């Protein structure tokens, strides 16, 4: 049996690094598309330096990979954020963010899609953000992640007949380098954010990688629902019956680290 291959973007640090490690643990070979290499390659990992904010470079790297290897698993994890209130948002910032957060996932899936369709099998996981639901200073970032969620639903509908499932995983605050840059530890806004979380802490990035097997597992279900939360005014919708396509919910609750137990995703604990 051939070892499955997964392409992970932004796999050198933070959440992406945890995803790479988890996939290798689960028996995958991983191709890591990032600008910078990881501190040390893991057994079964191949690193390629790619500027995913450059459409031409991304398209070429994806084309070369598709010609060399049969990649049926894709994790669009790479992303960028520049915090700015609406009056300070620039066109350049908008273009840079959308190029990485939206354009790159499109180009990568387009390159891998022929092999997935030929195999009648494919798994795509897009890493979203709770900012898609709105957050101060995240006009551009929130728009890009909301767009990614919309693309996820569209791709799931378009590709279901080919045996390809597409999901978005979008939890609340995760203590990565990127998160800490826009939410400096100890700052009043960061402390207020932590206080608003029922467990009074920000999630560690290793937890997030644990959802990946569920996100592209063989037992796929269909259904949309709103964020799981402690808000009794907006409870999660009821479980839907099995169906041949997988359309992910927006998993955007700040209570995810210890309280979320959704029927589609394995529960998480302090481990």
Structure description:
- Helix content is 38%, strand content 12%.
- It is an alpha/beta fold.
- It has a single domain (5-259), classed as Rossmann fold (3-Layer(aba) Sandwich).
- The chain is globular and about 55 Å long.
Describe the protein's topology.
Elements lengths: L4 E5 L4 H12 L3 E6 L10 E5 L5 H14 L4 E4 L14 H29 L2 E6 L11 H21 L4 E6 L7 H6 L5 H9 L8 H5 L2 H4 L40 H4 L12
Parallel strand pairs: 1-2, 1-4, 2-3, 4-5, 5-6
Helix pairs in contact: 2-3, 3-4
- The number of helical segments is 9
Assembly state of the chains shown:
single chain
What spatial order of strands do you see in the largest sheet? 3-2-1-4-5-6
Q: How many beta-strand runs?
A: 6
User: How is the CATH topology named?
Assistant: Rossmann fold
Question: What CATH architecture do you see?
Answer: 3-Layer(aba) Sandwich
What portion of residues is helical?
A: 25-40%
Largest sheet: 6 strands, parallel
Terminal CA distance = 32 Å
CATH level-4 homologous superfamily: NAD(P)-binding Rossmann-like Domain
Which range does the strand content fall in? 5-15%
- CATH first level: which class? Alpha Beta
The gross shape turns out to be: globular
Structural class: alpha/beta
Number of domains: 1
Q: In angstroms, what is the radius of gyration?
A: 18 Å
Poorly predicted spans: 218-271
The average pLDDT value, as a whole number, equals 76
Q: Helix and strand succession?
A: EHEEHEHEHEHHHHH
């Amino acid at each position: 049996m051939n070892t499955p291959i997964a392409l992970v973007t932004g796999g050198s640090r933070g959440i992406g690094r945890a995803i790479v490690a988890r996939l290798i643990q689960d028996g995958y070979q991983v191709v890591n598309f990032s600008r910078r290499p990881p501190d040390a390659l893991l057994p079964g990992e191949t690193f390629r330096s790619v500027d995913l904010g450059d459409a031409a470079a991304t398209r070429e790297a994806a084309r070369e990979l598709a010609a060399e290897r049969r990649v049926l698993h894709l994790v669009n994890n790479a992303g960028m954020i520049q915090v700015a209130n609406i009056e300070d948002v620039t066109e350049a910032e908008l273009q840079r963010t959308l190029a990485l957060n939206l354009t790159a996932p499109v180009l990568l899936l387009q390159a891998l899609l022929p092999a997935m369709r030929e195999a009648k099998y494919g798994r795509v996981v897009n890493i979203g953000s709770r900012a898609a639901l709105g957050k101060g200073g995240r006009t551009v970032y929130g728009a890009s992640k909301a767009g990614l969620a919309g693309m996820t639903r569209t791709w799931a509908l378009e590709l279901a007949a080919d045996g390809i499932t597409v999901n978005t995983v979008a939890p609340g605050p995760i203590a990565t380098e990127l998160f800490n840059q826009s939410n400096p530890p100890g700052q009043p806004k960061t402390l207020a954010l932590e206080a608003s979380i029922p467990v009074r802490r920000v999630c560690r990035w290793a937890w997030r990688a644990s959802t990946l097997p569920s996100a592209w597992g063989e037992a796929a279900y269909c259904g949309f629902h709103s964020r799981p939360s402690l808000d009794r005014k907006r409870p999660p919708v009821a479980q839907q019956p099995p169906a041949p396509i997988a359309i992910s919910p927006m998993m955007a609750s700040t209570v995810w680290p210890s309280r979320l137990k959704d029927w589609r995703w394995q529960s998480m604990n302090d481990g």
